[in-house]
Amino acid sequence: xxxxxxxxxxxxxxxxxxxxxxxxxxxxxxxxxxxxxxxxxxxxxxxxxxxxxxxxxxxxxxxxxxxxxxxxxxxxxxxxxxxxxxxxxxxxxxxxxxxxxxxxxxxxxxxxxxxxxxxxxxxxxxxxxxxxxxxxxxxxxxxxxxxxxxxxxxxxxxxxxxxxxxxxxxxxxxx
Length: 175
What we know:
Blueprint: H1 2-21, E1 22-26, E2 33-40, E3 44-50, E4 53-60, E5 63-72, E6 76-77, H2 81-88, E7 100-109, E8 114-121, E9 124-135, E10 140-148, E11 163-174
Antiparallel strand pairs: 1-4, 2-3, 2-11, 3-6, 4-5, 5-7, 7-8, 8-9, 9-10, 10-11
């Protein structure tokens, strides 16, 4: 009985220690941003952002260990009401059917400044790698990557050839 209590105590202490080593921060959405850039007609760039998103960052022993984020597709903004309506429509993001975009990291390599994870758009999850910069003193994380629209089923039908396939994504996170 005494031995059982010692073992139980040991597991309790280990569980408390591992929990104490992980600290979770909520993304400060008022000081953070998710933006994108894509070529249009081969000579112009269309820039936009998502205004509604949320997420969390985990740090283990003061090292970034996980990123989770959810973006509302309805919140897409390109400073052109007509274009935004098209982007929200069934032919592109289909916000009524697919109300969110999700990202979940599966590997963070601080030494090479890379974050790997799954990006889910329109229920299609694809692996992506993002470049990572961390300013611990300012509690800011910057991430950037490029994705293929076609790989995520983001096509415009007859207008598809007018829009570049590569979308640049930049994320600035304050925590």
